[in-house]
Each structure stands twice: as C-alpha cells, then as structure tokens.
Amino acid sequence: MSDVKKAKELRELNDAELKSRMDELAAENMKLRFQKATMQLNNTARVGQVRREIARIKTILAERG
Asked: What is the C-alpha to C-alpha distance for residues 12 and 37, in angstroms, rounded to an integer?
C-alpha cells in the first residue's frame, strides 16, 4: 500500500492502468479518512501521499487530453 509512484513511473502506464490506480487510491483515501475520524489512523502522512498521487494521475490524464 505504501508504494508511492513518481510522475515518471506513472507516465509509463496507459490510461486504463492510470484510471484503475486512481480508483484504488480513492478507495484507500476513503478508508484513511474513516480511520482518521475514528482515531485509528497510525500513519497520518499516508493521507497526503495518497492525495498527491491522485493529483499526479489526474494531471497526467489531463495532459494526454
């Protein structure tokens, strides 16, 4: 779960793989938000990592048009 990908690595994936990865990250983000709300979140930095990786993917998809 903690495999943060760089933009260069993400650019090597095709659109379908990027959308699949974004769906996985969105689900993880929801899970992390619930853990945070119930005070069960251990790694608070992961929330930001997930948000940034989602933003990277959206940027790459927008660049491709």
From this structure: 35
- Identity of the residue numbered 36: K
What is the three-state SS of the chain? CCCCCCHHHHHCCCHHHHHHHHHHHHHHHHHHHHHHHCCCCCCCHHHHHHHHHHHHHHHHHHHHC
CB-CB contact of 19 with 58 (8 Å): no
Mean pLDDT in consecutive groups of 10 residues from the start of the chain, 65 residues: 77 96 97 97 96 96 93
Q: Residue 4 phi/psi, 5° resolution? A: -80, 130
Is the pTM higher than 0.85? The answer reads: yes
